[in-house]
Design a protein that fits this description.
heterodimer, A: 119 residues, seven-stranded mixed sheet, four-stranded antiparallel sheet, B: 9 strands
Chain lengths: 119, 107
Amino acid sequence: QVQLVQSGAELGKPGASVKVSCQASGYTFTGYYLHWVRQAPGQGLEWVGWINPNGGVTKYAQKFEGSVTMTRDTSNNTAYLELSSLRSDDTAVYFCARGPNHYFYMDVWGKGTTVTVSS
Amino acid sequence: SYELTQPPSLSVSPGQKASITCSGDRLGTKDVCWYQHKPGQSPVLVIYGDFKRPSGIPERFSGSNSGNTATLTISGTQPMDEADYYCQSWDSNYAYVFGTGTKVTVL
């Protein structure tokens, strides 16, 4: 079945970087966008950006330009989200989600990865 | 930046209808989808393309979108429907935007 499996919880220090992964299975990885969405404690859902695994084109929410990098490895159907210059308000659960190309919704979600920023 | 506004909370009795609104400038000209999100779980898509239901989503979930307001309706609300609900659309730069979220309590 269609599945997105995310990496385990991460702990990062302020100013450092962390990298979260999302491995897809059960569908053609390059046929769908891969989105990242976060939810900070007590807050709502917030779109971070997407990567098109077919070619690697990315689009980030303006708020995250310069602080996140999305990449992919098509040889193992995995997408990555790197968070750099970590701040305490980056503490959140980060979800990856599949999105049909040219349609504005996300139909399959990973279970989420908790990123905690603390010294 | 484009904003989507939802009521923070909504209470509904079991078996009654719940209507959750999502307001944004000229929202009726854009596609809207809705997600159900329960604590500790992943969000679930319940409506896409304004009114379409993904496979496996009960018929009691329906959607509409016109003018500046999209609405998610849960007919015959069940205790299992208690969750946070988020609308989502896109802005002029094709960036995705989530609504502020509505906590639905069934009591």
